[in-house]
Amino acid sequence: EFGASLLQVSLQRHLEILDLLLAPTSADAYLVRMVAFVAEVPRNFFQVMELLEGPDLFDFIAARSVTVPEQAAAALVQMMATAVHYVHTRLGIIHRDIKPENFGFSRPVPGELASPIPPLKLFDLGLAWALPQPVAESSAHDMLELQRSGTPLYMAPEVWRGRCGPPSDVWPVGLITFLLLSLELPFGLLDCRSPMEAVTKHPLAFVTPCWDAVSQSAKDLIASALDTDPARRASAGTLLSSSWLLA
């Protein structure tokens, strides 16, 4: 009985979040819009989402043999940060599973990344959690006690400790930015048994030769997004106002 009650509450919360995505918004360019959902009592529901005709960001990166040019990477990061900023400040939710697989291009991507780059959109709110109210930038570091959830490789340090908040969605944006510019992940994440162990043991470093050609402003943005202390970590809005994305 308790399990059924918990499932009902979880389903209701998810439907409330999905309902927010039904209304057209100014963030439609970078957030997958839900066209409709149909609930079937007691436990089933179906959602119809906007069609994305391009690859997800993971497949886009995996198919590359060279790093993403810095100007194109900045355009992609701006789209990601805009989507994250919107879900925090307007929808009042934490996504909780930001990763390359949950960003998709609305159209096929030209191999040469010619401008304009097709819109990159955030989707999959299956783990999203509603905040008490949409957060303002000044209160974006409020944290909640939540069960650890997400994709381990992209989870922020505090999530491993059972705490989660808007800053926890910014950490993976920093990881993805690092990945775009180097085709690798920081902290030796792929070489350690545990992502948390990797982040604890290894400092953020830009040591491979590819970083010699990357601007300091790009490195500064990455460092601000990958601060291990969520209270010091940049918000999505702060990323959007960074010199790298405004250049």
Automatic annotation (TrEMBL):
Gene Ontology terms, MF aspect: ATP binding; protein serine/threonine kinase activity
Domain Protein kinase: 1-245
Keyword field: ATP-binding, Kinase, Nucleotide-binding, Serine/threonine-protein kinase, Transferase
InterPro entries recorded: CDPK_Ser/Thr_kinases, Kinase-like_dom_sf, Prot_kinase_dom
Keyword Transferase on entry: yes
Protein's UniProt name: Protein kinase domain-containing protein
